[in-house]
Amino acid sequence: MTLASGIDRISRFFGIIAAVLVAVACSISAGNALSRYALDLSSNAFLEIQWQMFAATFLLGAPYVLKLNEHVRVDLVYGSLGPRGKLKVDIIGYLVFFFPVCFIMLEMAFPWAWASMRAGEISANAGGLPVWPAKLLLPFGFVLLTLQGLAEFIRRVAALRGDIALDVHYEKPVQ
Question: Is residue 48 part of a domain?
Answer without folding.
Answer: yes
